[in-house]
Amino acid sequence: MVSVIPMPTVAALPLIFDLDLPDLALTRGGVVRSHHARGWWWSRTGDTPESPQKNIPTVLLVHALTGSAEAGGPEGWWAPLLGPEQVIDPAHYRILCFNNLGSCYGSSGPGVAGFPTDKNIDLTSLDISRALLMALDKLGIDRVHLTAGGSLGGMVTLTLAALAPARFERLVPLATSVAASAWVVGWNHVARQILRLDPGYPHQVGRGLEIARQLAMLTYRAEPGLDARQPRSLGQPSEAGYPVQSYLEHQGEKLRERFDAQAYELQLAAMDHHDLRLPLPGDNVPAISRVRASTLVVDVDTDQLFTPAQADALVQHLQQAGALVERTTVRSIHGHDAFLMEWETLGPILTRALQLQAPQK
């Protein structure tokens, strides 16, 4: 007699959902009241945010600076890696992502009732991580098979594992660091000053947000990639200027249409204040030393913001903490944003990360 084991089916479409969470006191002052988080969920049929099944491993994704919870689907920032028969298949994993605290895609943030209105309000990667832990608590998810994020998302990924070492089994921090370097903070400072020079600051920031984004795009890309995609034409420029000028204007306009300047400042601040070499509040050891998750550190060889040297330092800190650490490099002409572009390279990296040996309990 032959037994046929039916394959699990996935939901026809990913789900968007909202969670009401406890008030959150921020690290640098202020309290988020009427706290809520917007999430994105893709899993088997029957596994929903209202009734999560216990036997499905969770993959938690953390978005970067101006991303949203929609990691997959038509507009998803990691769409080529997520979905049926893709690297992370919702037939086998519950795929979960939340909009960052302080962003503008559904979670508590500027302009939303209950979010602090003090003009000096600040966020840290610790605040975003604590909000994510509250969301996982609300869903009843106490173990996470894999957590992955790039740039600011990588900072939050590491911070989650420092806050709750037993909860997170595997990590993939991409194009990130144990602490924001002076180089990163410096670029963010200039972007912030551009925003504040806008005549409509802080509530009606237009051109300032566009130019801040143009500046950022130059740090997210590398010279070979720009030359390949926006080549300087022979002779004189067109009426629209050289191709890279048109490209930067387009990128600035796109962000102005979809993002909020105050949220942009808060996400920059979360990146600036990230430093896991310091103890968590009430502790006396470096936060990074608390990480127990098996970790695959990923850098980009042409990254101008988070250099291979930063990845080396992160590996060293994790090894000193006693975590199982592996390291790989994405070879790309595109610079920092390669973690959002190099799908053929990223796929095998994630497959490798999903199979890392889990830390001993």
Please provide a written account of the structure.
This protein has 361 residues and is α/β, with parallel strands linked by helices. It has 2 domains: 15-182 and 275-354, Rossmann fold (3-Layer(aba) Sandwich); 185-271, Rna Polymerase Sigma Factor, Chain: A (Orthogonal Bundle), CATH 1.10.1740. The protein contains 9 helices and 10 strands. The strands form 2 sheets. An 8-stranded mixed beta sheet has the order 1-4-6-5-7-8-9-10, sandwiched between helices. Strands 2-3 form a two-stranded antiparallel ribbon. Helix 2 links the parallel strand 7 (146-150) and strand 8. Helix 3 packs antiparallel against helix 4 and helix 4 (207-220) crosses helix 6. The two termini are 40 Å apart. Residues 1-5 have low confidence and may be disordered.
Tell me the name of the CATH homologous superfamily of the largest domain: Alpha/Beta hydrolase fold, catalytic domain
- Biggest sheet details: 8 strands, mixed
Number of discrete helical segments: 9
CATH secondary-structure class of the largest domain? Alpha Beta
What features would you highlight for this structure?
two-stranded antiparallel ribbon, 14% strand, 32% helix, Rna Polymerase Sigma Factor, Chain: A, Rossmann fold, 10 strands, disordered N terminus, 361 residues, alpha/beta, 9 helices, 2 domains
